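User: For a reading group we're discussing how well predicted structures match intuition. Take Amino acid transporter. Before you show the prediction, I'll give you the sequence so everyone sees exactly what went in.
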Amino acid sequence: MVSPKSSEIFRTYKFPIILIVAIIIGSIVGLIMGEKAVVFKPFGDIFINLMFTIVVPLVFFTISSAVSKMVDLKRLGRIMGNILLVFMITGLIASVIMIFVVTAFPPEAFPIIATIGILVDAPATLINATGDTVVAMIITRMIEGKEKVTEIFKEYTLDNKLTMLLHKNLK
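Assistant: Thanks. Here is the predicted 3D structure of Amino acid transporter, as structure tokens, for the group to look at:
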């Protein structure tokens, strides 16, 4: 029997527990399936894209709600100044890191490595391209609203993908 204390702990930490269990399950699937686990990538991409879609309005409305409830304008000015300062400092830090990395490792110095990577990862590239195409098709259909998601898979065949891939490589 579950004690009330452990039930309360589970209720309090429900989402972190689910996240940790999902990470463990994903790790086990990755260990068992190895390279074949790439077939699950489109599902992760769809999830991440949906999260990006949710996060921006959520942050906007949270900040708007907090600002609209503020009574003291001096406090609002200080908070906005701090937000602007943090934004500028993080942008400056990111710029310095980018300049350092590009100076230390110039991209034009590694063309051979990039070519070898493309040749070695050809099967994985085909799988990733397939997944990316499916994700793009689903998102396009969701935005346009013209067809159901199930009809996407009817028009998408391996033959069609191979023809498109060969045509792209011949150009």
